[in-house]
Design a protein that fits this description.
Length: 137
């Protein structure tokens, strides 16, 4: 019987994380083209608890990646919006700054992996362009 953590399964799981990071990089590049510049990424939810997701995102995007101490942020976000709506804070941004919890130290991109991911991201974009006509078929 094969273990569910066999090498092919681990490689597939990593490929999913990398594919997600490439898509995130595409969004960040579109934001930059629109005149917005990200300086840090903040990961939330269960996947952010481990270092691997944050390291891959840092290496692919070139940005430091951190997470809140408490990664289950859905309720906190709802409370921020409610506080803003109830007039406790003038807007959602002010509420988020006042109510956000502390963050862990960021994971920084590794220059060697960053260079490798630059090439892989270019291949990702080429593959996306080649397959795009099939998306609406």
């Amino acid at each position: 019987m094969r273990s569910c953590l066999s090498f092919p399964s681990v490689a597939k799981a990593r490929a999913l994380l990398e594919g997600n990071a490439y898509a995130l990089r595409d969004v960040l590049e579109a934001m930059t083209a629109a005149g917005l510049r990200a300086t840090e990424l903040v990961c939330v939810a269960g996947g952010a608890k481990g270092d691997l997701l944050r390291q891959i995102r840092a290496d692919v995007t070139g940005l430091p990646v951190t997470r809140p101490d408490d990664v289950e942020t859905t309720a906190r976000g709802a409370a921020m919006l409610a506080a803003s709506g109830a007039g406790l804070h003038p807007d959602a941004r002010t509420a988020s700054l006042a109510m956000a919890g502390p963050r862990v130290e960021p994971v920084h991109p590794d220059p060697e992996r960053r260079a490798l991911y630059d090439g892989l991201h270019a291949r990702h974009r080429d593959l996306y362009a080649a397959l795009k006509p099939l998306f609406s078929a």
